[in-house]
Design goal:
The protein is mainly β. It contains 2 helices and 15 strands. It has a 9-stranded mixed sheet. It has a 6-stranded antiparallel sheet with strand order 2-3-6-13-10-9. The longest helix has 6 residues, at 115-120. It starts with a strand and ends with a helix.
Length: 232
């Protein structure tokens, strides 16, 4: 693949821990230096963990409604590796930025909770409104969490020592007033209980989230504008 990928340092910055506290939940934040404009915007990012069994964490597509494409999530890291973000602009230009992260065993690390407890709350969602304004087109900020074991297929049941089959979130869509804010197609390298911090240009309506997983389960939730104002 002879694609020309440019140095991303003038477009974005990447924040990762140099040595991760928990290899199964490594925080990653990409910050874009410019807001989205009609004729100049970030169309998507791909997060890659070079040394993971499945290196592509996921592709995240953004609309102009995101306001600014800065984004945070948590990933599994299997061994000392480079973590990369490749951003594509609306004109097709691609930019890359990378950090070295010291962490190991994140893809096979067992869940902290027993399987029954995990499955009992699968699909439960929360939205935390971090920065809110009802002024038209001001950039708001929110953090979305969903309870899901995100089993990688490389983990073992701690009691039976049987392999746990892969079962993970593989599609997420977030919208407001019928307009897409962002959508994603993640893989097994996303952490257990996935979490995403994102921006959006507030148009006043409720925020709708739809999540699908690799077993075909679908979870939907709507977060009303009253919740947005009260920052629940």
């Amino acid at each position: 693949n002879n694609e020309n990928i440019l140095d991303g340092a003038k477009v974005m910055s990447l924040e990762t821990p140099y040595r991760a506290l928990d290899a199964a939940m490594v925080p990653i934040t990409v910050k874009f230096l410019k807001d989205q404009k009609k004729d100049d915007f970030i169309k998507s990012i791909v997060i890659v963990v070079d040394e993971n069994p499945s290196p592509v964490v996921g592709k995240f597509n953004f609309s102009q409604k995101i306001g600014n494409a800065s984004f945070s999530t948590r990933v599994r890291v299997d061994k000392y590796t480079y973590v990369r973000v490749i951003a594509e602009k609306n004109n097709g230009e691609k930019f890359m930025i990378s950090n070295y992260v010291k962490a190991a065993g994140g893809c096979s690390a067992p869940s902290l909770d027993d399987m029954d407890a995990v499955m009992a709350r699968i699909g439960k969602m929360k939205m935390k409104f971090i920065q809110t304004s009802m002024k038209s087109n001001s950039i708001n900020k929110a953090k979305f969490l969903i309870s899901h074991p995100n089993y990688s297929g490389l983990q073992f049941n701690q009691l039976t020592r049987a392999e746990i089959p892969a079962h993970f979130v593989n599609y997420i869509k977030v919208e407001q007033d019928g307009e897409l804010i962002w959508e994603a197609t993640p893989d097994i390298s996303l952490s257990e209980n996935p979490s995403f911090t994102f921006n959006y240009l507030n148009t006043g309506g409720s925020i709708k989230v739809s999540v699908e997983d690799s077993e075909g389960k679908v979870f939907n939730k709507e977060f009303s504008s009253e919740q947005i104002l009260s920052k629940k």
